[in-house]
Input
Amino acid sequence: ALHEVLHMTLAAYVATGFAVAAVHAWFVRKNPTSQFHRRALGIALIVACISIPLQIVSGDHSAKRVAELQPVKFAAMESHYETMAGAPIILGGIANDEEMRVDYGIAIPYALSFLAHNDPNAPVTGLEEFPRDEWPNTNIVHWAFDIMVGSGMVMLALAAWAGFFWWRRRRLPDQRWFLWALVLAGPLGFIAIEAGWVVTEVGRQPWIIYGIMRTADAVTPMTGLVVPFTTFTLLYIVLSVILVFLLRRQFLETADPSELESMSGKLADKEHTSHAA
Output
């Protein structure tokens, strides 16, 4: 559980950091002089830029643990059918379980062996070693893994650019193209989280307790589950409405500090004029 908890906790910081940065980048793009949004963007980028490299490291650790503890899932993540040394990582492609190959994928030689064992020549167990009824849906797991890793790499690149810019110029990176990139990357953290959970949950099928109990044997026969399901769904809808309301009141309608100073100055002048009259 340790590597899962660590990976998910860092993922939450990454997703939140980039999502908040995206919102403030949008407003900085529209109003570059806004101190409120510039400072908020800086705070969000600090969280994002610290979290994403740590997340990449934890992801590497998680992959090695999966290769050790759940080799079927690890093989499905890369549509790896044949046990071999110097196994490649396959980017994209369409897995063909019947012919045990991947069509239209891009292979990176030795990368899978290195990912699993820190040794480019180490053997990696393929799906062929396991009964077919213990294979997860290879295409779903493989594509979800690629989406998760791809999203992480994009965010890492943005974090690297932000860190480099700050190191060179000691100020917030506010080039227009960079702000647009942050806006577009805003959802990537949450997309990566969802894709990662698809890898976790679909990848362990057909087991609900790996190697002990199948999912089909764990389905509850209890009736009436639609009631708590509907109740919790409605609860989260209500909480979402409240969240939007509070964000709008506390954030979207927050006046810029410079505007507040200007308003204070005008009120002071008006009061002074009134007293003089």
The chain has a mean pLDDT of 87. The beta strands are 84-85, 89-91, 94-96, 101-103, 106-108, 123-124, 207-209, 213-214. The first helix runs from residue 2 to 30. Residues 158 and 181 are 8 Å apart (CA to CA).
